[in-house]
Amino acid sequence: MASSTLFQPLPFSLKNPKPPTLFTVRAQSPLAASAKQRRPADQNIRDEARRNNAAQERQMFSAKYVAFNADPSSTESYSLDEIVYRSQSGGLLDVEHDMAALKRFDGEYWRSLFDSRVGKTTWPYGSGVWSKKEWVLPEIHDDDIISAFEGNSNLFWAERFGKQFLGMNDLWVKHCGISHTGSFKDLGMTVLVSQVNRLRKMNRPVVGVGCASTGDTSAALSAYCASAGIPSIVFLPANRISLAQLVQPIANGAFVLSIDTDFDGCMQLIREVTAELPIYLANSLNSLRLEGQKTAAIEILQQFDWQVPDWVIVPGGNLGNIYAFYKGFKMCQDLGLVDKIPRLVCAQAANADPLYLYFKSGWKEFKPMRPSTTFASAIQIGDPVSIDRAVHALKSCNGIVEEATEEELMDAMAQADSTGMFICPHTGVALNALFKLRKSGVIQATDRTVVVSTAHGLKFTQSKIDYHSRDIRDMPCPHANPPMQVKADFGSVMDVLKTRTNLPIPRYEFGLKCIHSPPSSLLGETESKTSSSKSAEPLPELLMLSILTKSPCTRNLHAGILNGGGGGGGGIGIKGDSCQQLFILLHYHVYVLDALFFQLKSAVTINVRIVVKPPPFVSGEPRRVLAEIRVGVEAPEPVIRRSIRILVPGWRCWRV
Predict the structure, then answer these.
(1) In this predicted model, what pLDDT tens digit does every residue of 608-638 receive, in sequence order?
(2) 174 by DSSP, 3-state: which?
(3) Is the per-residue pLDDT at 52 higher than 80?
(4) Fewer C-beta within 10 Å: the chain N or C terminus?
(5) What is the pLDDT of residues 357-378, one digit of tens each?
(6) DSSP labels for 300-314?
(7) Whole-angstrom Cα distance, residue 344 to residue 449?
């Protein structure tokens, strides 16, 4: 039923839409934005967009499809309102903007205009994509735009990661995955689905939108189509994407086909289907998506106050994104916003690295490959659609291609996570490429470098669990951080904290005095008893421990006799066979007391005295030691008003 409804054709008209009227825009001041700032969900925003759209239609800006990298003498072009994916020769298409019209405005104008829209709620310019509308899809009505205010993603200063692992102080991570559906694909999908929305309103023959996907494209397509009320069809390779990636198109109501093939097989099938049915192709073969993705490059320049970084490293699978970044940087250079572009690095997984092999051959021969399984599943592509685009971009900016093995990308991901990030395996590929380029000296320690993070780490939690559980075959996982199973008692917890963590726990030299025959002044407090067996190790009757201080301003805070019975005759049962075990317990006890004052940054004096009454030794049975604990604390005046909690492992908790 779903398929029959889905493929039912819609009525359409062959009448072409009326072209917009053009007028000259003065470059002295930015285009006026709406004065009212409301939430984009407010219907008034939509109404306001309709009222303002008449003026926007008169803009001189336009764009069209042309054959990619065609001869300058070629006149082949198509309207963006046409449904076409290939040139007459079967090659790729590209979106070409009217650069002459855009150049009527200088670089300062464009910088000022784009900066003025950052953080605004005026529809649709609050989106990181649509804030550059004149450079993306200039002729679309604002009311036709389908947006989740994507873009404007965080440019994260990876200070600790850069210094600790790479010796770099100017390393940045562009978190494109912090977006509506958790990946950079939102940037392109808002443009494509908005254009489909426009075509359907023009009664063009589009009954739905379809894509082949390794996970992220399908999530973005299904979400934006659901927002627009447009049917979406998704071809996924069976058992090759994460559960989080699979659930997104299902939850958003897409028609999902799980196909027993890899991505390249799904891509071939969707091409054939869209050639036969009025389903709009949403893969990066459709160059409209790249218009949205290029805005991430412009955002990077904005976030650096229009200063150009030295390097930008982009994970690559189907290779549309590396070209999109190049195109964004190049437009900024051509229109005078910046005077140069960064060098690009395309990072591929070694299990799916046809571009890397092409690069290593000196660009002599490209050979598609059958990719092996990789944790970076979204770039597990052996025959990338945008290979020609990627090669053109890399050659034009003196770019580089690097690869990462499965072990390398997972280690890089774990290292990055340990410094506060939470990245996807694809970003791990890019970070490992940076490791290699730093080691070879290609990228210098002082180079400003941006690594593009393409998806949110929450989409790939299973791979992180497998790594930290050391459940990956033939992978040592040196940076694994598995949880520790600890008994539910204070002593066990303290033992783990002291021996298995890197916490800066303060350590002191303890003065320990063992007295087998207590002085007469103490005989009234304890009995002097020893073991009845010569072979047994005797326990000391008295242990004294002190932490010394040089602080002159101390006074006695509290002192008292603590015992398990609550009265003078009570005792505390402790299982132990040696003086060493009892001393360890005492060591824990004093540490906890000291920790209470640790943040005060002042010296304290803690005097602890334990009076021990060992029972007669019985062979084969553990000893039960009866003890009294006397605690005296000397500390500066501010501490007097504090409540001190004394914890003894395996015993009880007292408040002094």
Answers:
(1) 454 444 445 555 544 444 444 444 444 444 4
(2) strand
(3) no
(4) N
(5) 999 999 999 999 999 999 999 9
(6) HHHHTTTPPPSEEEE
(7) 10
The identity of residue 566, as a single letter, is: G
Total residues belonging to the chain: 656
Q: Please state the pTM of the whole predicted model.
A: 0.72
What HEC string does 128-159 produce?
CCHHHHHHHCCCCCHHHCCCCCCCCCCEEECH
pLDDT of residue 620: 52
End-to-end Cα spacing for the chain: 75
Judge whether residue 400 has pLDDT over 70. yes
Handedness of CA 464, 470, 473, 477 (dihedral sign): positive
Q: Name the nearest CA neighbour of 199 among 59, 51, 83, 66.
A: 83
Strands 542-547 and 513-515: antiparallel
Residue 252: closest CA among 227, 275, 270: 227
Do the beta carbons of residue 171 and residue 158 sit within 8 Å?
A: yes
Q: Domains (ranges, CATH) in the chain?
A: 1-461 (3.40.50.1100), 490-655 (no CATH)
Region of residue 36 (phi > 0: left; psi between -120 and 50: alpha; otherwise: beta): beta
Q: Which of 143, 146, 168, 145 is nearest to 158 (CA)?
A: 168
Rounded Cα gap, residues 493 and 490, in angstroms: 5
- 198 with 205: CB under 8 angstroms? no
Which of 134, 147, 136 is closest to 40 using CA atoms?
Answer: 147
The owner of tokens 């992978």 is 475
Q: Give SS3 for 64.
A: strand
Interatomic CA distance for residues 188 and 174, integer angstroms: 16
- Provide the β-strand partners of residue 175: 453
pLDDT in tens, 443-484: 999 999 999 999 999 999 999 999 999 999 999 999 999 998
Structure token pair of residue 43: 């219907």
CA max distance for the chain: 114
| Cα–Cα nearest to 397, from 317, 312, 337, 454 | 312
Task: For 155-172, write each residue's pLDDT tens digit.
Answer: 999 999 999 999 999 999
Query: Over 70: is that where the pLDDT of 542 sits?
Result: no
Q: Quote the CA–CA distance of 293 and 456 in Å, as a whole number.
A: 16
Please state the φ and ψ torsions of residue 32, each to the nearest 5 degrees: -70, 130
Q: Give which of 411, 428, 522, 417 is closest to 475, Cα–Cα.
A: 411
3-state secondary structure 462-477: HHHHHHHCCCCCCCCC
Looking at the predicted structure, is the pLDDT value of residue 210 above 70? yes
Pairing of the two strands 232-237 and 208-212: parallel
CA distance to 86, 210, 328, 643, per residue, from 91 (Å): 6, 21, 22, 77
What is the torsion angle, in degrees rounded to the nearest 10, for the CA atoms of residue 387, residue 391, residue 394 and residue 400?
80
Which structure tokens are listed for 525?
């407090």
537: its two tokens: 């190790």
Measured in degrees and rounded to the nearest 5, phi and psi for residue 171 equal: -105, 135
Q: Cα–chain-centroid distance for residue 398? A: 28
The pLDDT value given to residue 633: 44
DSSP category for residue 109 = H
Please state, in angstroms and rounded to a whole number, the distance separating the CA atoms of residues 234 and 258: 8
Q: In sequence order, what are the residues at sequence separation of 6 or more whose Cβ sits closer than 8 angstroms to the Cβ of residue 591?
A: 494, 498, 505
Q: Give the tokens for residue 552.
A: 């002159």
